[in-house]
């Protein structure tokens, strides 16, 4: 089988399309023929060596994908050849709180990821792909959509009538928009592009804020929401956190997701206790959060927003598209 | 009646002992003869003009106190002359989530506070003083103890077998120690003084970490707690937050309370989402949190740790004691 | 002013239209000109003397209503003559957990209720009427809608993709349907009338079960929901509880609301622990739950389902309509 | 190896000590040499054929036990020969909400249980035995203690100052007493024996109520707790539930555990919604609840209360002891 790997050195130009032996499933495992992969910003950082300085090479990148079961290992019940499945981000994290061990063993680094034609996965660590989605759409869910679900639904218990500020129009951001809308919340979106804001409104956002026109977008969001927003889906990182705090209502939550800005930033923590804010880190989530998401998306036939689909051979171009930052929704790769 | 007030300019030397007309309770109000007051770091900052640049003068400082009901306004049920009561920090915040209006109208700034002989309070905004405590002890509860309770019990749901890292040995810190112990948690305390650590151990702390001997105290706390601590009671602010994050286990909570370091600090937010941390701001809490605390303290006859009691006339010396930072527990003033 | 009162003996024929002195608002109170009232089954039981055997007479019945502020008492901020407001069911229960005192002092028994032309209320115990609703529609909210909100949103944290079984098509039931739909849940409704089921489907129900055709409707609901439903909105009481338990999934919640069947019933509790069910009693809720509801209903322009509106003079006929059980949605009375 | 089995017909006299082939661990499994077993009332009902009419025979009874790892299957990490472990009640239920499949596959019926010399278990479905407990003590934990933990800590979030009413002095009841005390709650216990009440007080109960002397023990408990108790640990079932409801405060929780009275009982549900009670079924809990319990018990060196220990050959006498109802704490069997 073929796989993309970062072979000897980090960087997009370190990606190589290599031929590897076909894997076989051990006891309790499934063999998946990967059909599609979706890119996250974390994958880009991983390839460039910026995510984890201790990551070893070679590495098959990417953690989001969808595939077809082509072989079933010994002792596996409930799965058959031909079933469509998505591997979960942190194999073995099925439910409950995370522990260090789980959070350290994730697809696309340090473990080999989804950007290959065949992969084995523990049967307990996959989720049935939603029936209403094609392979590319299903491939967008395991990290990006589950992260938005964990934040807003599990940790935030978002409810109808609340307001949610979503930063930007990337993958997690648009899933957050869709999930907030499913629960009857009012969504505000920021972007530097009026055209992207128009597309976000078409997806159900109530308000768009162009942060080039409104440098004080945090204050603006707060005003638009009366006392401030109930939730901020913060994917920007250190550079935007101060304004996100300004946008939040007393007792509001800032869901901290982003890896866009990994550096340090001068930060005043006074607003956190003065307004009793919650800053809640989110790192994807366990299998049962994914299953909840699938049930909701199937019921409402929610379709992920796919920005562009690249052929397997063009995977480096997909990373470049993500790096350029001009995308709206998910950048994907069709595999097999 | 007499009152201490910041009269014309901020600063400890701006405090004046003044004579004011005796207040009378309106409908729905109680008149309290203040018996004792307890100081918080916020009070010191308020007097020095560092807490809120827009605070108007004159201002009677302090938000913690206990008194005796000496008159009952029209329409008040359930209170009688002679009852002992503590006013709550944010009058009108009885239960539920805070709103901006409540958080902006708090005792000791912007509203006149407790450092006076007589004060009127809405009857709904006081709590019965615990029967086992004297006036000075009861005066320590409204902010410092309620803050620790809101953090660990209400927002943290601390439980037996968890580990709690408490920074320092000030008022909130020692209440956090006592409250964590009441719930069966294991408590780690930091201090720069071995003698204070010994006293903290006598109060039930399992471990003391002298941060002068252990500059990497965050890492040390994490090791002492296996996977990391479940809760950090963070009163230090920007200067200690990075180490607090290091101490926390994945999914752990950092209860952010402090006003010691109000400045900005370079902060890396990566650990927040990498370890799925919760950074939870705490600003005291509503009346019903205070009532829960009183029930628990009465049941277990918990006594606050009083550092030193000053006479009413010596109030500025009490502030100076707090400013010096050598205290262990609460600095108090006896009023009437 | 005029008022309907149960004068000397219980029963619909004990209702009298009487002339009473106009009330005036005390300090902290508002005077409302009641514009519309909505009936709950509890009101009927109260009038018939079946709700509380110790209820004293005379009694102005009804707890749901909407009115206009016509006078503002001393010391009241935030309200002006002309504002439209709904009194809350349990005056003084603003937020947090209920206590016995609050639950014992509720409108329409033991306290005089809303079925009169003028009433005084504590300013803290009213909620602004939603701007998109007329007086009759607003009058349906304080008990029926807040009960459904407290159950599904506050205690149940209903989320998208979950399934909710709603018993019947009365007031609480249809609000539960609307609220569940706002949060993206799938709703199943029971009724004995295919025509009512068709109307429930028009309001967004996914499935209707005619319990005359399907005596084992609990089992049917469970099958329709796969593993069983996540929530049952149980308004039928003892007669239906066994089937509600059969409908629920392991770990599911039965929100127990009904007073339709106040008698005892033979009940097997084995399913409660075998399936780890939660049976959660709901008695309306505090003011802040009402405010959350108003925000959600305004955002989505949700309109209550009004069955029929009677003139003030016809109030007994309104009670008779409710007693007959043929209504769909709320039975209302226009007052002034 | 030897095992006790219900061979051909239900009943204590259907128990046979049989010789079976030694099992060998498959991939992912551990082989345990069972050292001790503890009996639950469910085990007795199972043996007598009263728990599940469709249970097939033969059946090795009992779900609580502790053993030593004597062989480690292929692919198992983290366990070594000589480690001491307790199997969990519902293999595969590791965290999160239960599902039907998990709740249907439990030890001691329908699956073979712990009353045998050797057993294989999935490595993921065991928990390390607390280091401070001997084998017999460790054997009491998996059902009885985890049930009390799930109820009070996980579902009830019991906190200091709350009151907990515990019915009786059986296994779950005494664990509930110990766990409530660990969290600073005040415990009331009922019994028909003054001697048992004295022993409960020695374990930390604040009040004992002899229900022979106080037939209205529910009302008595409510008075002793002011507004009523916050939690009832209800193990009695239908016969006691009405009084448990009377004991509870508004908003209180009745943790429904018991299988003592599996029959139906006439039950009035009015108090459930009038006092906004929660009746919460509890069926043991997942592995991570067990792990939390172990951490708490180790920290505080909590020792289970062992009523009597029988030799393996005397297992039927142990069942008879349990059936007689005179025990205080856990009835155990030493195995190897």
Topology of chain A as a string of helices (H) and strands (E)? EEEHEEHEEHHEHEHEHEHEEHEHEHE
Alpha plus pi helix count of chain A: 11
Helix-residue proportion of chain A? 25-40%
CATH topology of the largest domain in chain A: Quinone Oxidoreductase, Chain A, domain 1
Quaternary state of the chains:
homotetramer
Radius of gyration of chain A: 20 Å
Number of domains of chain A: 2
Largest interface: A-B, 39 and 39 residues
CATH C-level category of the largest domain in chain A: Alpha Beta
The major pleated sheet of chain A works out as: 7 strands, mixed
Residues in β-strands, percent of chain A: 25-35%
Distance between the first and last residues' Cα of chain A: 11 Å
Arithmetic mean of pLDDT of chain A: 94
List keywords for this structure.
homotetramer, 336 residues, alpha/beta, Quinone Oxidoreductase, Chain A, domain 1, Rossmann fold, 2 domains, 7-stranded mixed β-sheet, 6-stranded parallel β-sheet, 16 strands, 29% helix, 27% strand, globular
Descriptive report:
The first copy, chain A, has 336 residues and is an alpha/beta fold. Chain A folds into 2 domains: 2-140 and 304-334, Alpha-Beta Complex (Quinone Oxidoreductase, Chain A, domain 1), CATH 3.90.180; 146-281, 3-Layer(aba) Sandwich (Rossmann fold), CATH 3.40.50.720. Chain A has 11 helices and 16 strands. In chain A, strands 3, 4, 5, 6, 7, 15 and 16 form a 7-stranded mixed beta sheet that branches. Chain A has a 6-stranded parallel beta sheet with strand order 10-9-8-11-12-14, with helices on both faces. A two-stranded antiparallel sheet of chain A has the order 1-2.
């Amino acid at each position: 089988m073929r796989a993309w790997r970062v072979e000897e050195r980090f960087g997009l130009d370190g990606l190589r399309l290599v031929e590897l032996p076909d894997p076989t499933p051990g006891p309790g495992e499934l063999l998946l023929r990967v059909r599609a992969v979706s890119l996250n910003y974390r994958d880009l950082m991983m390839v460039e060596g910026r995510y984890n300085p201790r990551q070893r090479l070679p590495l098959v990148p990417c953690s989001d994908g969808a595939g077809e079961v082509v072989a079933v290992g010994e002792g596996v019940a409930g799965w058959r050849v031909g079933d469509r499945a998505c591997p979960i981000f942190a194999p073995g994290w099925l439910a409950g709180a995370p522990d260090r061990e789980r959070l350290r063993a994730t697809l696309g680094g340090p473990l080999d990821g989804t950007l290959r034609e065949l992969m084995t996965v523990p049967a307990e660590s996959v989720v049935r792909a939603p029936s209403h989605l094609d392979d590319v759409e299903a491939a967008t869910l395991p990290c990006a959509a589950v992260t938005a679900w964990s934040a807003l639904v599990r940790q935030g218990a978002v409810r109808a009538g609340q307001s949610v500020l979503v930063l930007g129009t990337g993958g997690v951001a648009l899933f957050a928009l869709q999930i907030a809308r499913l629960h009857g919340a009012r969504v505000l979106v920021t972007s530097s592009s009026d055209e992207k804001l128009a597309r976000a409104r078409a997806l159900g956002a109530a308000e768009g804020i162009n942060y080039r026109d409104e440098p004080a977008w945090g204050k603006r969001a707060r005003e638009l929401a009366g006392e401030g927003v109930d939730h901020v889906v913060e994917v920007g990182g250190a550079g935007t956190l101060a304004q996100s705090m300004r946008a939040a209502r007393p007792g509001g939550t800032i869901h901290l997701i982003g890896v866009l800005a990994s550096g340090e930033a001068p930060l005043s923590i006074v607003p956190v206790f003065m307004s009793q804010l919650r800053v809640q880190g989110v790192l994807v989530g366990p299998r049962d959060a994914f299953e909840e998401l699938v049930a909701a998306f199937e019921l409402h036939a929610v379709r992920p927003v796919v920005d562009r689909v690249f052929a397997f051979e063009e995977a480096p171009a997909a990373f470049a598209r993500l790096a350029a930052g001009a995308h709206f929704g998910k950048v994907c790769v069709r595999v097999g």
